[in-house]
Amino acid sequence: MEYILRTKNLTKRYKEQISVNNLCMNVEKGDIYGFIGKNGAGKTTTLKMILGLIPPTSGGVNIFGSEVRRNDISYLRDIGSIIEFPSSYEELTAYENLKLHINYMGIRDEKTIDKSLEKLGLLKDRNKKVKNFSLGMKQRLGIARAILHEPKLLILDEPTNGLDPLGIVELRQFILRLASENQLTLIISSHILSELELMINKLGIIDKGVLLKEVAMEEVKNNCLEYADIRVDNIEKAQKILESHFGLNSELIEDKYIRIDLKEKNIKTNLISKLLIDNNLELFELINRRENLEEYFVSLSGGVKL
């Protein structure tokens, strides 16, 4: 097991307010790590401490196997990042923006510019001024800039902010391809959990500065509820039949649906529908659902949505 990033009791205090509290994060090589939490939970503060943009009050950061020392920024050579919204010079072209970046990064090979633009689907727009870019193109240009120096770790803070549904899908596809082709380790914070769960293999949940849970997405999916909502003409009769035949407990939802846990007895919905119909019940709806990442987050954070 090779860790790219570990934090130990990372804490940030502003006077009496604790923004991040004894946070211990573990990111392994090759992870696409989703970092989620409500506004003000401490996500961006954590990422800024990892990147040395703000100093921690206490605790430490270990990156690539070495402890980060105060005022030592040498480790940033292997990290690319976008914190909040990526800024560019609007009157310059995409190519000119990235050329400025390689100059102050000390990168001599200008071929890296076109390579980065190509990876993010922007090569054909290299000579277009950034002011004429869509929001999605500006986000991709920001990522192209972040990978110019071929980092080992890429940190993206809310990369889909403000994007329309098509822009979100496109950005996800580019991120997944980058991770695969460049063998990148990624940390991604996002409010759009339905999109995030399509990308990540590991999840960190932060609330009020505390890391509530760090878990593999495979485990999340295994632990998520799977249930069926059933609407019939006689609710009481249906509940009795389900209990007597399958031993299924049920609850009433919105005064019209019977909800049953499908994992409880590992019963298929086609058997349930057949049973109800065979007992002369009129079946109006049977909706098979699996708990998603947002519902999982709500259950851990005391019923509060993002």
UniProtKB/TrEMBL annotation:
UniProt KW keywords: ATP-binding, Nucleotide-binding, Transport
UniProt GO MF annotations: ATP binding
Superkingdom, natural source: Bacteria
Similarity comment text for this entry: Belongs to the ABC transporter superfamily.
Full protein name: ATP-binding cassette domain-containing protein
PROSITE patterns: ABC_TRANSPORTER_1 (PS00211), ABC_TRANSPORTER_2 (PS50893)
Species of provenance: Clostridium cibarium
Domain ABC transporter: 5-233
The keyword Transport is annotated on this UniProt entry: yes
